């Protein structure tokens, strides 16, 4: 028994020592592991300052699998809220330093989703940057994209079936191209940042000028002691000191294909050393938006027809932020009948009730809807669709012919808009119904008996066309109608037209 106990104690001590060594090794590994913050990923397809939570989560999970210690998402959101950071996709050097100080990170990852297409073939593109938190230096930048058409396989086996699966492949490819080992950074920073950097504009057309301004907070900085340059796609642009404005400025044309370009600033202070600071990024956009415009109303002979309301749907084929929009209703002479404009993203739907700008109702005729938009780079796009206004009431023609002891009545219609229904009532002078007819098609012929010229037979005609236009016609005495073609009597229209202009559904 004693031997067994001694062996059991020996084994217990060995297991305890192994566990202690494992914990010590784990603590050492954690101490030297790289701390990394994944900032919320910008999604340009979702409008200005759009956010892509799904891509953010996928990047976090992939980096954790690679062995990095990734800061909790809640701590990142709390930091942004505390410091009133409203913009995603970029971060200035002062906030990078503050992020390192508060969360103890070594690096941060900034990302942007540059392209999203859910329609077949689905496509997705992202650009990523890794910034060293100790000096705001960009240590790596890259991009990757995937279109489902690029990975077609025989019989469709193992193809990505939707945008979510494409997103998973894009993230996996991004993990393959980022640096395999990022060195841990010591807590002792060199010096506090004292540069205020402003990069503008955020979005440009190809060839337009970009500006980067660098201002030092120290009042005793001498121009001769400092040289500043801006680096864009490997190209170095020297910044010029403007004594009146008291800042350095670099100006260069935005060249290259459409896409996002990171910008860094290199500052050389002589004996104090050199450092690189991430300034942000800009987007080159040379393509005008594509507007998909559709009209919904009643249709006649292949044309959309407005009688009461016209619904106008307008969306962008490839979603992107819009700075200004204008919608106009033009008549057949291209004169503006009604117009509305606004700033910001284009409303998805309008409803027009046929009212002119002055408040009156637009006349019957051929019209067009024209939608114009401008994006952040100043690219303009126009789309137009035609429609017709038809409010004219249907006109039914009645013809009578007297014969022996009866009157023959012919009812006809030759309008362009088909009838939906009609009804005729013939009454004697005492109000007794002599004949009642109804139907959907004309012409029709029928007879009514009568005894003498002194007899009185009244007629009421009701009709409605397929567009909803109504008519009511009253003939006091059909016996008094002269033979042949006669519209006769009084006519009342029942348009029921709404007294309003148009409404916008956001």
Structural commentary:
The chain is 16% helix and 44% strand. The chain has helices spanning 2-32, 53-65, 73-82, 93-103, 163-177; strands spanning 35-38, 42-43, 69-70, 107-117, 123-132, 137-147, 195-200, 203-204, 209-216, 227-232, 235-238, 240-242, 247-253, 259-268, 274-284, 291-296, 298-300, 303-306, 310-316, 322-330, 336-343, 349-352, 365-375, 380-389, 397-403, 406-412, 419-428, 433-439, 444-449, 457-465, 470-475, 484-486, 490-493, 502-505. The strands form seven sheets. Strands 1, 2, 3, 4, 5 and 6 form a six-stranded mixed beta sheet that branches. Strands 17-18-24-23-20-21 form a six-stranded mixed beta sheet, with no helix packed on it. It has a five-stranded mixed beta sheet with strand order 8-15-14-10-11, with no helix packed on it. A hairpin with a 5-residue loop joins strand 14 and strand 15. Helix 2 (53-65) crosses helix 5 (163-177). The longest helix is centred in the N-terminal third of the chain and has 31 residues, at 2-32. The protein is elongated, with a radius of gyration of 39 Å. Mean pLDDT is 80; it is low at 1-8, 21-32, 152-158, 186-193, 485-489 and 493-500.
